[in-house]
Design brief:
Elements lengths: L1 E3 L11 H7 L8 E3 L5 H14 L6 E8 L9 H4 L4 E8 L7 E9 L7 E3 L10 H5 L5 E3 L1 H22 L7 E6 L4 H11 L10 H4 L6 H9 L8 E8 L3 E8 L7
Parallel strand pairs: 1-2, 1-3, 8-9
Antiparallel strand pairs: 3-4, 5-10, 6-7, 9-10
Length: about 250
């Protein structure tokens, strides 16, 4: 069981084992993964490697965040952006060449100052002062984050298409992290896909961080067909970003 989250129940004691116990997954081992909004894609790549190695046959990947726990609702620059949400997928081996085909994941630690939580970590432990200064809420410098997200998500999505010889016509769906519609639109334009191929639900749920991509897959599941070429893309604080190319493995509407 892999849980992608930036809002675990506790800083010490991973949340994934709690989830595994709650669902009675007694033979599973479980751990959290934190790559900000790209965590779900990082988790997919990790889960895929476990399955491809032959050591595991089933990996449950969860993306879940309770952003209301770290958002300052007096700060209109961030409070209107985020929501609470969770979703999960089960990964299994495929003998038909379906499932995850390729992934490109990247990071740049120079971007950490633009999107992070200032207090509560080992660099700046919790004190009366950090609480008074509201350092335990998420901080975002919107303009540099937006510029980096537009370039990075669009670049990596185009890169994975070129690497796998995919055209816009070959792509059935783009499943983007739901952070900002302008970022999503820029990624779709770079890929050459129309709005009819883009999963968009930010207007309903906001940015649920690690929950956005599985929520999209859940909402559009009955429209997905076996063999569909799907591109997932995300960008998050850190900075982290990436794209995954998968072939949908079953007819969802049957």
């Amino acid at each position: 069981v892999i849980l992608a989250t930036i809002t675990p129940d506790y800083h010490v004691a991973s949340t994934a084992p709690t989830v595994a116990s709650a669902i009675n997954a007694l033979n599973a081992y479980a751990f959290d993964i934190n790559a900000a909004c790209s965590g779900f894609l990082y988790g997919m790549s990790t889960a895929t490697s476990y399955i491809e190695s032959g050591r595991y046959k089933k990996v449950l990947l969860i993306g879940a965040d309770m952003m209301s726990s770290i958002v300052d609702y007096t700060d209109r620059s961030t409070s209107i952006l985020f929501g609470d949400g969770a979703g999960a997928i089960l990964l299994e081996p495929s003998a038909e060449g379906l499932g995850i085909q390729d992934s490109i994941l990247k990071s740049d630690g120079a971007g950490r100052s633009f999107l992070h939580m200032k207090g509560g970590g080992s660099q700046k432990p919790s004190t009366h002062e950090t609480v008074d200064n509201k350092d335990h809420y998420i901080f975002q410098d919107g303009q540099p984050v937006f510029k980096a997200a537009v370039k990075s998500m669009a670049d990596v999505s185009e890169e994975i298409m070129e690497k796998n010889n995919l055209t816009a016509e070959d792509v059935a769906w783009l499943v983007p992290h739901q952070a900002n519609k302008r970022i999503i639109d820029a990624t779709a334009r770079r890929m050459g896909v129309g709005d009819d191929k883009v999963m968009l639900n930010i207007q309903k749920y906001g940015n649920t961080t690690n929950g956005t991509i599985p929520l999209c897959l859940w909402e559009w599941e009955n429209q997905l067909n076996k063999g569909d070429n799907i591109i997932l893309a995300a960008f998050g604080g850190g900075f982290t970003w990436g794209s995954i190319y998968l072939k949908w493995a079953y007819d969802s509407n049957k």
